[in-house]
Amino acid sequence: MAIVTPTSAADVAVVTVGAAPLRPDEVVAVARHGAVVELAPEAVARVAATRALVEGLADDPEPHYGISTGFGALATTFIAPERRMQLQASLIRSHAAGTGPEVEREVVRALMLLRLQTLATGHTGVRPVVVETYASMLNAGITPIVREYGSLGCSGDLAPLSHVALAAMGEGRVRTAAGEEVDAAEALAAASVSPLVLREKEGLALINGTDGMLGMLLLALHDLSVLLDTADVAAGMSVESQLGTDAVFAADLQALRPQIGQAVSASNLRAVLAGSGIMASHRDPAVCTRVQDAYSLRCSPQVHGAARDTADHALLIASRELAAAVDNPVITDDGRVESNGNFHGAPVAYVLDFLAIAVADVASISERRTDRALDRARSNGLPPFLADEVGVDSGFMIAQYAAAGIVSELKRLAVPASVDSIPSSAMQEDHVSMGWAAARKLRRAIDGLSRVLAIEVLTASRAIDLRAPLEPAAATGAVRDLVRTVAGGPGPDRYLSPEIEAVTVLVASGAVAAAAYQTTTKE
Known about the structure:
Blueprint: E1 14-17, H1 24-33, E2 36-39, H2 41-58, H3 84-95, E3 99-102, H4 105-120, H5 128-140, E4 143-144, E5 147-149, H6 158-168, E6 173-175, E7 181-183, H7 184-190, H8 202-207, H9 211-241, H10 251-255, H11 260-273, H12 277-280, H13 295-298, H14 300-322, E8 330-331, E9 337-338, H15 346-374, H16 397-413, H17 435-466, H18 474-483, H19 497-509, H20 511-517
Parallel strand pairs: 1-2
Antiparallel strand pairs: 3-5, 4-6, 6-7, 8-9
Helix pairs in contact: 1-4, 1-9, 3-6, 4-5, 4-9, 9-11, 9-14, 9-15, 9-17, 11-14, 14-15, 15-16, 15-17, 16-17, 17-18, 17-19, 18-20
Protein name: Histidine ammonia-lyase
Main location: cytoplasm
GO cellular component, one term: cytoplasm
């Protein structure tokens, strides 16, 4: 299984919900690129059919959880028919208890889309108007304001999903398509969307899912696919500019350890370094007497490849989750209403934590390659810190400090959230996943990785320039030329922060990887 193709999501204009499980690129297309959402007719029919079952149970004098009872620790409390609409609205209002900074627009849109997909399965018992309202809000660009803290990753991402449901009711605050903060009622009216008046089961159905953590996992995998390709490029530039060898990346050597991701990264490194004049300059054993390179150069495919394999495993889990209908209780295919534990976020939380470990290690080896380039004892002839006038100029000394500081932060972010659990709801919910927290820290970690790789690319570009008149490979030269459009070449010290920020944009957008691989026959 290959990790998500980074450029595919922007090409998806319309996403159909309810005909089949959503693809990862479709989630990214709606969340990040504003793709239009349409409901499959068969999904609307399925929703209507199961809603009829719920309405029949609502008239049953026997209690049914979430339909004629309270929630959580109040599950044994019977609610009279005339109070049930109040019950559903009260659930949403009380659970919309998030606090802290706003969550990013793309995360909220992913969360909304994934909840819509579960609603469209017909296993939740909501009315068709509920799924139609969520689709309309997405298409109108109405993004409820969701706060950073509030989810324990079990019984669903309750607080984040409640803020969305509250907006669908015409309450709370939202952002418009233009980013303006307004009352939800105002935004719905402007989009000709009627506020929802929730009925039996619907409040519960809107908030009992792992949609927030899953959405962030899918966005992270999309971004990581770009960054892992870029990491291979950056490593190639470092190996080349530090007069390392590409012999260790040979296919037959890699095949001795048949790890899939390792083979991909080694292949990328061979492609990136093909035709390098710098590499050719020291292939003669009489010229180069070093037996082998340091681990950070020689073992790049092993580390990057392990991260690739981790991402593939995470995508497998995410793909299974995309095929799920997460709610409690659910309406089964044969019409039963059953309580279950599928809302527990453990499967997603584990891989979010696993990815944070991989991200930290890829950043760590990148920073070590950068540090080698700045140390004249290890860089094979480069000036200290790549400075123009040694002693007067500091070169990239503090750029490496920045990378080191980020790597240190990434190590802290790699501490798993999913091993923690704080009981809640009067001990009814006595073991939780903390998957939302795992997802939040992974997003921060991926941002950190993009910056560490940018510093390596910037450093290696200057090192390549300093090897002139030797010519780099076509791929590494193309990246160096791209970097030169936003950052100057060797010379006296200058204000470096804007250059790091600009190269970070090139890294995160995929421009660095694209510049390199368009010159190669990348597998």
